[in-house]
Structure formats: structure tokens, C-alpha cells
Design the sequence.
């Protein structure tokens, strides 16, 4: 019997996208951004990403990587934990 080689990464067909979580995170980012009176483009510039990418994050079409979450939190002048707490609050309000 032949051994199968181990490949790095996800198994074929696996996905980590969670639409509900992505929308809650995006809503939390948008709420914090508008609270501060920041334009989406200004936040994207502070975080070092394209405005269109920030738009996808805010609309829940993209889940950012952990390093990008930290960049967005820094751009919003809050901690990543605060951003996650805001995301959890959005999830809680979506369930109510």
C-alpha cells in the first residue's frame, strides 16, 4: 500500500467562509468607522488596503486574515479585542 503525501493547506472542497460572521464583522467595522466620522477610503488608507477591499469586508463579502484584523483595529484606534467584542454584539443583535 502506498503512502499518500501530506499537502499543506485545506482539504479539497473545504471552506472557512461563514457568511453570518463575515456580515457581523463588517457591520462592526462600519459602525466603529461611522462613529468616528471616517470615510471608508480613509479607513482603508490607514489600514493599508484598497478601498474596494474594505468595502467587501464591510459588506460581509470577505473575512479578513488575522493580521488584517489587527491592521483594521489599529486604523480604528481600538484593540483587536474591542473589534471582536463589537462583532459578537452584532452577532447577538442579529439573533434577537
Sequence:
Amino acid at each position: 500500500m502506498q503512502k499518500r503525501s501530506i499537502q499543506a493547506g485545506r482539504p479539497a472542497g473545504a471552506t472557512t467562509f461563514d457568511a453570518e460572521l463575515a456580515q457581523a464583522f463588517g457591520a462592526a467595522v462600519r459602525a466603529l468607522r461611522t462613529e468616528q466620522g471616517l470615510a471608508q477610503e480613509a479607513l482603508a488608507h490607514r489600514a493599508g488596503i484598497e478601498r474596494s477591499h474594505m468595502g467587501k469586508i464591510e459588506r460581509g463579502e470577505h473575512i479578513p486574515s488575522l493580521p488584517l484584523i489587527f491592521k483594521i483595529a489599529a486604523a480604528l484606534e481600538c484593540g483587536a479585542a474591542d473589534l471582536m467584542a463589537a462583532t459578537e454584539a452584532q452577532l447577538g443583535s442579529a439573533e434577537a
Remarks:
- Residues 19-95 form a domain with the 434 Repressor (Amino-terminal Domain) fold (CATH 1.10.260.40).
- The CA atoms of residues 28 and 56 lie 13 Å apart.
- The chain has a mean pLDDT of 89.
- The chain is about 60% helix and 0% strand.
